[in-house]
Design a protein that fits this description.
The complex is a heterodimer of chains A (422) and B (426).
Chain A lengths: L2 E6 L6 E6 L5 E5 L6 E7 L7 E4 L2 E4 L4 H8 L2 E2 L2 E2 H7 L3 E6 L4 E7 L3 H13 L5 H19 L2 H14 L12 H4 L4 H11 L5 E6 L4 H9 L9 E2 L12 E5 L6 E8 L6 H19 L4 H8 L8 E6 L4 E8 L3 H18 L3 H18 L6 H8 L5 H4 L6 H11 L5 E7 L5
Helix pairs in contact in A: 3-8, 9-12
Chain B lengths: L1 E6 L5 E6 L5 E11 L2 H14 L9 H10 L4 E9 L2 E11 L10 H14 L3 E2 L2 E2 L1 H17 L4 H13 L13 H6 L2 H11 L4 E8 L3 H11 L22 E7 L4 E8 L10 H12 L4 H9 L6 E6 L4 E8 L4 H16 L5 H17 L4 H13 L9 H6 L6 H9 L2 E10 L4
Helix pairs in contact in B: 1-4, 3-8, 9-12, 9-15, 10-11, 11-15
The chains are: A alpha+beta (422), B alpha+beta (426).
């Protein structure tokens, strides 16, 4: 029996319809007032999952297979799926991250037909040797495009510094070499092993009647989830504290990574930690912070610091990014700033304002619909909780978390630019 | 969603896009002047110096903390060009009061901040702070040089520079490094006091209660004495003498091919919707000629896009390719244009393009930036009869035929082929 529930946000009045199908598939819909509806059908299967156990034996697939599969599902026996969406006046897209693959569409009309198309193409693969080979050419160009992106390279060097050689530090699209080993059989097996009801969620912002959406999804016949993903193995601490790499850039790029060795398995707890870190990072590194203003007034940086706390179920880390001619000085300032915060505590009023910023940021997600389905996919039914999740968190608790997380032994630094190698 | 525009007593245009869809309200103030390398350099630097502080919020930290208090209201400078007009200004967005904890009117407080930033900058010895000007000049120069890091957009911009090198159009919206490095605090302050105040000024409001924004626009307008010489200009028409071919070698693993064309259609013509339709069939969607043939059929690239400046009347097709495929890709792109020019357009292609565009026009209503962009573009192109809504424009699509597509395709003239080849840099 499908279970249907409705959540209402105390803050915005928005409604979130949810359905748990008996086969395990979960559906979330937030109706909207915008012309465009956005839908996402996603699977908890991403670039990290290159190894899993099936019927007692371990199966390994080439790096980049999840992303390759994402591209290839767009082929139908009758032609590319894009054409079907175009004929409905809609557009479709997809993306692969470390731990998920998501297929999306946006439309202003024909929502029901678009939804049927989405559900159909993601669950009805069609591959052959010829189309796989052709895709190797297109993805090869995509990989080369990323190879030329200094930001992307600098980012992956930071991951490598934190985790060493493991799936986390390998390019999501794989390499030209690794994808050359992908065959139609590998792709078919992945769909039947991972594109299963309990491993997938359908998330919608806008759309039509919820009952219709649910009944469209109930018609799907999805395999059962019987495999087990291999754990992503990495050691506590970091692999290397610094990686420098030469590539021509106007100014060296620099990522500081802070590896989070605290592995929390409960979804709700992880969400809470993630949300607290959003407030903390904002307080510590935004244009209002002493660190930014100190670096900027010394001319060590010329633009705002970009910062984030990234959280996947198997790993988490914080990042700080800037362009600078003086990476050593920036790193030194960062370390002493954090030591000062750790020793002296944080300002209560500033933390309260940062909590308010996280709240405002949440309210604004409803104004830009295209991000909301992916938020729903990650947050699941807790989406409205996020608005007030921080209300009970005190500055003292945030300071304890800062002391635990910002440990110098877990810092790494990735610098990339013209002749930056020492 | 309704649009209305009026000219306030101070010659400031005030535009209201009334919509209750959003949880935030926003105001965008745009100043325009004819594009010129020197003036663009001053204007871009001025915006950044103004953001450094005003008398009430004398540092970035003070200003940023004030915005944090206002529920993280965003206040950002903007700088761009529309044809041969240079536009700069500020845009802010804040939560509507019903979403604040104490029903706080943060919108008026944001207007006060913006007013201070624009009209009451911090000064030293009667001019801008030397430290701020020096630091912002260095940052702006660094930003201009950093554009080279992103080869995907750098390659087509190089193509445009080669194409329109001698025209005002080739000026960068952020200005010119050599000029910026020479600007003194006194120069910039004189520019701010004597020239900037004469620029055209347009204020956009998006939300449900425009009264405060209108008062703000009116008061702001009193600081400005509009001078006719800063009125929107129509971009000069670029003439192709002979096809230019330029190859540069960069340290990239994937080459970039950019092909520049002049177009015979411009937004100011009034029937630009024909070209929009052509662009859809030619390059913009997964069902387009370029995607279907250059990417899917020939597997030559991952991305292949065509960006058109509707004011200047130029279009640049750009793609990432292996060095040895450049000629093959160029031939295929030219072949597709030739086919379209001969009227070889199927009914299906027309139907698909109309469907996609009708959806795209409706999507414009979903974002404040989309709406501002729509109307401001039309204002730059001459205003008047051009000031129709996206949906009114969509209605014109129905009558279009293969002959209209052929007409636009025939209007493309090959001008410049720019290749950034991967390899050891010379």
């Amino acid at each position: 029996m499908t279970q249907i529930k409705k959540y209402i946000s105390d803050v915005t009045g928005e409604v979130c319809n949810t359905a748990y199908l008996s086969n395990g598939l979960k559906i979330y819909q937030i109706p909207s007032r915008f012309s465009t509806s956005h839908a996402l059908f996603g699977v908890d299967y991403g670039s990290l999952n290159t190894s899993y156990t099936k019927n007692g034996s371990v199966i390994t697939v080439p790096d980049g297979t999840a992303h390759f599969l994402e591209h290839k599902l767009f082929d139908n026996p009758s032609g590319p799926v894009d054409d079907v969406f175009t004929s409905l006046g809609a557009s479709c897209n997809a993306y692969t991250t470390f731990s998920c693959t998501a297929y999306t569409f946006s439309c202003t009309d024909n929502f029901d037909a678009c939804l049927d198309t989405l559900l159909d193409f993601v669950t009805h693969p069609f591959f052959n040797a010829e189309t796989v080979q052709k895709e190797q050419g297109i993805i090869g160009e995509e990989i080369k495009m990323y190879d030329d992106s200094p930001f992307w390279r600098c980012y992956f060097n930071m991951l490598y510094a934190m985790y060493g050689d493991c799936p986390i530090s390998r390019d999501i699209a794989g390499t030209v070499e690794s994808i050359s080993h992908i065959t139609p059989d590998i792709l078919y097996a992945l769909v039947s092993d991972f594109y299963t009801a309990g491993n997938m969620r359908l998330c919608i912002y806008g759309g039509g009647e919820f009952e219709k959406i649910v009944s469209a999804a109930e018609k799907l016949s999805l395999p059962e989830y019987t495999v087990k993903k291999s754990d992503i193995v990495y050691s506590p601490g970091v692999y290397k504290h610094e990686i420098r790499s030469n590539m021509e850039t106007n100014k060296p790029l620099m990522y500081i990574g802070i590896k989070d060795d605290c592995r929390i398995l409960s979804h709700v707890e992880r969400l809470r930690r993630n949300t607290v870190f959003q407030a903390v990072f904002n307080m510590l590194f935004s244009e209002s912070s002493d660190l930014f203003n100190n670096l900027y007034s010394q001319g060590l940086i010329t633009d705002r610091l970009q910062y984030s706390y990234e959280d996947e179920s198997e790993f988490a880390f914080g990042t700080l990014f800037c362009e600078t001619d003086h990476p050593d000085e920036v790193y030194g300032e960062f370390v002493s700033y954090m030591n000062k915060i750790i020793n002296e505590g944080i300002n209560e009023k500033e933390f309260e304002i940062s909590k308010r910023i996280v709240y405002a940021d949440f309210i604004r997600t409803f104004d830009s619909g295209d991000n909301l389905p992916s938020e729903l996919f990650l947050q699941k039914e807790n989406i409205f909780d996020k608005a007030l999740m921080l209300s009970s968190v005190t500055a003292g608790q945030a300071h304890e978390l800062i002391k635990e997380f910002f440990t110098e032994s877990n810092y790494v630094c990735s610098v990339l630019g013209t002749n930056v190698q020492k | 969603m309704e649009f209305s525009r009026k000219i306030l007593s101070s010659d400031t245009g005030f535009d209201v896009i009334s919509s209750d869809k959003f949880k935030s309200e926003s105001v965008t103030v745009l100043f325009n002047s004819p594009l010129d390398k020197k003036r663009a350099s001053y204007t871009a630097l001025l915006m950044n110096v103004l953001m450094r502080g005003c008398v009430r919020y004398p540092t970035v930290q003070h200003l940023s903390r004030r915005l944090d208090e206002l529920y993280d209201a965003s206040l950002a400078p903007v700088c761009f060009k529309r044809g041969e007009n240079h536009i700069c200004g500020f845009s802010f967005t804040c939560l509507k009061k019903e979403y604040t904890f104490g029903n706080e009117d943060i919108f008026s407080q944001c207007l006060d901040v913006l007013y201070d930033v624009l009209t009451d900058p911090i000064t030293e010895n009667g001019v801008f702070s030397a430290e701020y000007v020096e630091c912002e000049a260095a940052n702006l120069i660094s930003g201009i040089k950093a554009k080279k890091n992103d080869k995907i957009s750098y390659a087509p911009s190089q193509c445009v520079k080669i194409m329109c090198g001698a025209e005002p159009y080739s000026a960068d919206e952020s200005g010119d490094c050599d000029i910026i490095s020479e600007i003194t605090p006194t120069d910039l302050y004189c520019f701010y006091k004597n020239e900037f105040v004469k620029f055209g000024c347009e204020v956009f409001y998006i939300g449900t209660s425009p009264d405060n924004a209108e008062k703000f626009a009116d008061t702001l307008g009193k600081h400005f004495i509009f001078d006719e010489k800063y009125r929107f200009v129509t971009a000069s028409v670029h003439k192709t003498a002979e096809v230019k071919r330029v190859k540069e070698i960069e340290d990239v693993s994937q080459g970039k091919l950019s092909i520049g064309f002049t177009t015979s259609n411009r937004l100011s013509d009034g029937d630009y919707y024909k070209y929009t339709m052509f662009a859809e069939v030619f390059s913009n969607s997964p069902s387009s000629r370029l995607f279907k043939n250059v990417r899917e059929k020939l597997s030559l690239c991952y991305y292949c896009r065509c960006v058109t400046d509707p004011h200047k009347g130029i279009a640049v097709v750009s793609l990432g390719i292996d060095n040895e495929n450049a000629e093959k890709a160029e031939n295929e792109i030219l072949r597709q244009i030739k086919m379209l020019a001969s009227g070889d357009v199927s009914d299906e292609e027309l139907i698909l393009a109309k469907l996609t565009l009708s959806s795209a026009y409706r999507e414009i209503y979903d974002t404040p930036a989309g709406m501002i962009n729509w109307y401001y573009n039309r204002l730059c192109a001459g205003g008047g009869d051009l000031m129709i809504s996206p949906m009114q424009n969509a209605a014109y699509m129905d009558s279009l035929t293969a002959a209209d597509i052929a007409e636009c395709a025939s209007g493309l003239t090959l001008d410049t082929v720019y290749i950034m080849e991967g390899g050891e840099k010379l």
